[in-house]
Amino acid sequence: MLTVVTRNIPTQATLVSSTVSLEDITAQLDALETEATARIAAAAGSRELEQLRIGLLGKKGRISAVLGAMGRLPGDQRPLLGQRANLLKQQVQSLLRQQVSALEAAAMAERLATETLDVTAPSTFLPAGHRHPLLSSLDRIVDIFSGLGYGVADGPEIESDHYNFSALNIPENHPARDMQDTFYLDPGTLLRTHTSPVQIRYLEKTPPPVRVIAPGRVYRRDAVDATHSPVFHQVEVLAVDEALNFGHLRGTVTAFLRAFFGDLPVRFRASYFPFTEPSAEVDVLWRGRWLEVMGCGMVDPAVLAGLGLDPERHSGFAAGLGVERFCMVRHGIDDIRRLYGSDLRFLRQF
Ligand code: DAH
């Protein structure tokens, strides 16, 4: 009596038989092949496959068990059966490998399907800020003057009466000193009404030749309307050297205005400022009307003398412009209040 014992894999008891013949064992191997093929193909994971591998190919596995019965066969039948058994082993190994790859491929396909990143999908809107139109106009002004060789200076917004008025040749009784125009903090101290005091402060520290601009905030006791604001911005321009004349002023201002506004016609109109002589106001032709955009002139000899400079040797020109007006003309904005209201629908246009 010979009993082929099977282990590890639950069996349909195909191998339990008492007599051994080549046909029996071959049939058993055939049945084992069919069963192993089906079970490997049905295996859902690597653990299950490993158990099948041990159960089929292991030392105590089912193929070994069948081969164990081989010793009972006549010697001439054994090689044939041995061949058949080896083929089966190879086939099972290959089926196991295939199933491992098939499972891995399925797992990968699953991951690819669930973890896809669609780089072409539209993104959510990321709000990005940008420069305020007033500041971008100021940047442009600074850029142009930098290109002409001017440095940038600044001075305090809380200023003394001396720098804001007296040193600029603005006499005691000048209307600009009127309480209605100037925010006084105390009798000698005020919020600067223009950037011109930076001319004095700069020349006190810097001997000519000087080429500098001074952008900054200025304050006036004006009621708010479409063209007035109690706080606004100016850029002061100052050049002091030997032998500077009105032609230099005119050439510089014209080059600057052309760079900023393009081809708008420009005109110089005689005017008066206490700190310049002669003085002019500059207009650009905008929407069919002459619009004043800056004041300028040759630095008054009295101002130079007050700084200890010899007006016979040194001369200079100066100019002052309102940044808001430049910005408004540049962008076609008709109400200055737009620039200070934080209306994003307005600001996003620039
Ligand atoms: N400071 C003057 C103002 O605020 C503007 C100005 C005029 C500045 C003529 C200058 C100048 O430097 O030369 O109205």
Discrete helix count: 11
The largest pleated sheet is described as: 7 strands, mixed
Note the gap between the termini: 100 Å
Strand content is 15-25%
Using the alpha-carbon principal axes, give the shape.
Answer: rod-shaped
Average pLDDT confidence is: 90
Number of strands: 10
Kindly provide the radius of gyration, computed on alpha-carbon positions and rounded to a whole number of angstroms: 48 Å
What does this structure look like?
There is one protein chain. The protein is of the alpha+beta class. The protein has helices at residues 22-42, 46-57, 62-68, 78-114, 133-147, 161-164, 197-205, 246-261, 301-306, 323-331, 344-347, and strands at residues 151-152, 158-160, 184-186, 189-191, 210-219, 231-242, 266-273, 276-286, 289-299, 314-322. It has a 7-stranded mixed sheet with strand order 1-5-6-10-9-8-7, sandwiched between helices. A hairpin with a 2-residue loop joins strand 8 (276-286) and strand 9 (289-299). The radius of gyration is 48 Å and the shape is rod-shaped. Bound molecules: 3,4-dihydroxyphenylalanine (DAH).
